[in-house]
Amino acid sequence: MSDLLKRPFGAHGKVHQITPESAGWRYVGFDLWRIREGEKISDRTGSDEVILVMVEGKAEIAGAGRDWGELGERMNVFEKTPPHCLYLPNGSDWSAIATTDCTIAVCKAPGSGGHGARRIGPDGITLTKRGEGSNARYINNIAMENEDYCDSLLVTEVFTPAGNWSSYPSHRHDEDDYPRITYLEETYYHRLNPADGFGIQRVYTDDLQLNETMAVHDGDVVCVPRGHHPCGAPHGFEMYYLNVMAGPLRKWRFVAAPPVEHLM
């Protein structure tokens, strides 16, 4: 199995824990919790800023010295309704008590104290179409460049219809050369509908020194340290992914792969 493909540890509790150290990079961290009604989890952000994303289910959330009440609405991610999220700066404590079975993503990157804690969504997040034909997909922007919510995090959700491609035309963001391109590490947390389906993700560089093609299943995470990273949903299986990106500059600038540059 590719080192870039991370299968969940199990079906309950913390099922993913990706750190800069484990991924072999500098910026992005990602945890995923699956907890049952009545269970409580807690953590500290430390030197990171964090966005908690209620992928599915509901929980009472406290963080940064404040009770934020119950967050969450959709019980299945493929409802495609806007997510309920919470931004917490570095140096914060947080806790969540599940009021239903729930899935909570913890998106992490270095924080510098430049932004205060705040709710993100569901207000202000609108499902938006990107691309055409078999390259159409639908985006819930949580905290991309236009949303000045974070010091370094960039976070978004993408729904790819069955039979379509996403993160395509193939592109990379692996050089620190703004405004031409920015260096951004990235994780993809994948879900499939039906859940017993699969998708495809390729991660490759122009010189093919990195050239991995992976079958992704429901709940998998793919790490993208560099290179192009398109993914496809086979006929009959809808794909969701939650992207987390971060690097030295909170800008998303990319370069297309030469063979598909004309498609941009």
UniProtKB/TrEMBL annotation:
Keyword list, A-Z: Isomerase
- The protein's superkingdom reads Bacteria
Molecular function via GO: glucuronate isomerase activity
Give the Gene3D superfamilies listed for this entry. Jelly Rolls (2.60.120.10)
What's any GO biological process attached to this entry? inositol catabolic process
Keyword Transferase annotated: no
Q: Which InterPro entries match?
A: Deoxy-glucuronate_isom_IolB, KduI/IolB_isomerase, RmlC-like_jellyroll, RmlC_Cupin_sf
Q: What is this protein called?
A: Myo-inositol catabolism IolB region
